[in-house]
Specification:
The chain is of the alpha/beta class and 258 residues long. Helices cover 39% and strands 20% of the residues. The chain has two domains: 2-60, no CATH class; 74-255, Rossmann fold (3-Layer(aba) Sandwich), CATH 3.40.50.150. A hairpin with a 2-residue loop joins strand 1 and strand 2 (9-13).
């Protein structure tokens, strides 16, 4: 069995009967392949030191059927990562990890000793969540002295909130990235519950701020409506949007007041 790496795409290949056997056994093997896939992703990213290269890599990555493509518009997420590069975060909370591509990108721009916390359901109404075996993949994203901690639960529950606080151990977040429950009530509660954990001057970011509608792409739920309220309270808010007519995506950023 060998690996092919071409323009950020990593695939395993086999010939003949072996390929058929491998495809049949691929899913049961995924827990064993997960960490190996993570190492392959790390190696490919190291060879490509630019943000645009990393975004293309996670979009195209495929290792034995294991993919990490983020649900992001490439130019939007690349712009977000460039902002973070100017002020590498030491403590990150991502609510809603799904396929893991955005989490991987965050490891590339965070400090080498950063703590990155992922908070996600097993399954979510808006397509989030991931099977347990992918936890091994996500933990393998850590580089240098980074620590990745996975909290699998409802972000709205007191238990999940307590787990996050325990992991922070009294420290404050530099970045909160909210991409979980997209209902108006859900995204608002995530910001109300977790934004107070962000340090003054730290970033609170929301995904899917672009309004949807009939015939448009995706379903941003109530995020756009809540974002407009948040934006009205924060005149220095930043919007990373490639196309306001797309019907979903877009990233909004505010800074916690000093």
């Amino acid at each position: 069995m060998g690996a092919l790496i071409e323009r950020g795409r990593v695939t395993l290949h086999e010939d003949g009967f072996g390929q058929l056997v491998f495809k049949t056994l691929r899913y049961p093997l995924k827990p064993l392949l997960a960490a190996r896939a993570g190492r392959a992703l790390q190696e490919a990213a190291t060879e490509r030191p630019e943000v645009d290269d990393w975004v293309e890599l996670v979009k195209r990555f495929n290792y034995a059927g294991i993919t990490v493509e983020p649900w992001q518009v490439p130019n939007e997420i690349a712009g977000f990562m460039r902002i973070l590069q100017t002020e590498p975060p030491a403590r990150v909370l991502e609510i809603g990890t799904a396929s893991g591509g955005t989490l991987f990108l965050l490891t590339r721009v965070a400090r080498p000793d950063a703590l990155l916390i992922s908070l996600d359901l097993r399954r979510g109404q808006f397509g989030g969540g991931y099977p347990r075996w992918r936890g091994r993949l996500y933990r393998s994203f850590a580089r240098d002295a980074q620590r990745i901690r996975l909290v699998r639960g409802d972000s709205h529950s007191a238990h999940s909130s307590e787990q996050v606080r325990r992991l922070l151990d009294g420290e404050r977040l530099d970045l909160l990235f909210v991409d979980g429950d997209h209902s108006y009530e859900g995204v608002k509660q995530d910001v109300v519950d977790y934004a107070p954990l962000v340090r003054p001057g730290g970033i609170v970011a929301l995904h899917d701020i672009v309004p949807g509608g009939p015939g448009k792409h995706g379903d941003p739920g109530g995020v756009p409506a809540f974002w407009q309220e948040l934006k009205a309270e924060n005149p220095d808010a930043v919007e990373l949007v490639e196309d306001w007519e797309w019907g979903s995506c877009g990233i909004g950023l505010i800074r916690r007041p000093h």
